Amino acid sequence: MKSYIYLLILLGLVLQALFIKIEHDERYLLADILKGSASLMFVLIGYQAFLITNNPFNRLFLFGLIFGMIGDILLNLRYVFPKHGQKIFLVGILAFLIGHILYLLALIPQARYSWIWICIVIGAIAAAALLIYIFRTMEVKKVFKIFGVFYLGAVFIMTAIAIGIAIFIPNRRSILYAIGAVLFTASDVVLIFNTFSGVTKFSMRIANLSLYYLGQILIACSMFL
Questions:
Q1: CA dihedral sign of residues 5, 9, 15, 19
Q2: pTM of the model
């Protein structure tokens, strides 16, 4: 990777850390600006990879990163406009869902028919198990349940396929992407428990945001390999 890519990574990490601090101080408009700026860094990394490489899948990964940035902005915009918070949150989740579908569309052609179905089944079972636990132990509105089924299904299946590719077609690109996908999924799980368990903890918010951002950075960086 070019040296300026490392500067983008460093700048993104600094902006993300500032965002976490400002959000905790409840300065939500500035926090959202910082969050969008941090997300712009992994989009710029992905864009540079798209320009430099000839990988045909990088266009889909780039648009996936862009929808991730849109989701980031919307999820925090709900604090700026609390009266419309639920609607903004759901649109943000929709943006992330589109991003994951784009990641899936990029990953599936790289997998092999002989084992991709195993990955899909494992991902679907993992998502179903988590959803059953959430619905039984947490109070979740019906609209969130509907979005949750599609979103978590896409996230876990995408991650399972990424892990499968890293295992059966190991290289630096597939391994780095798989690690990023796992971190992304872990961040979603932390977010769910911190949002719907009834007990919100700042430490879990830090974990959620840090895992997510590192995951997106690794996904963007994997595009260079």
A1: positive
A2: 0.93
Largest alpha-carbon pair distance within the chain?
A: 51
- Nearest residue to 153 (alpha-carbon basis) of 175, 179, 132: 132
Could you report the per-residue pLDDT of 77-120, keeping only the tens digit for each?
999 998 888 899 999 999 999 999 999 999 999 998 889 999 99
Instruction: Please count the other Cβ atoms lying within 10 Å of the Cβ belonging to residue 133.
Output: 11
Please state, in angstroms and as integers, the Cα–Cα distance from residue 196 to each residue in 98, 148, 188, 199, following that order: 23, 12, 12, 8
Contact 139, 197 (CB under 8 A): no
Cα–Cα dist 38/76, whole Å = 13
Gyration radius (Cα) of the chain, Å: 17
Which structure tokens are listed for 178?
């798989």
**Can you read off the two tokens belonging to residue 185?**
């999924």
The label of the residue with tokens 């490489």 reads 53
Report the alpha-carbon distance of residue 212 to residue 202 in Å, rounded.
15
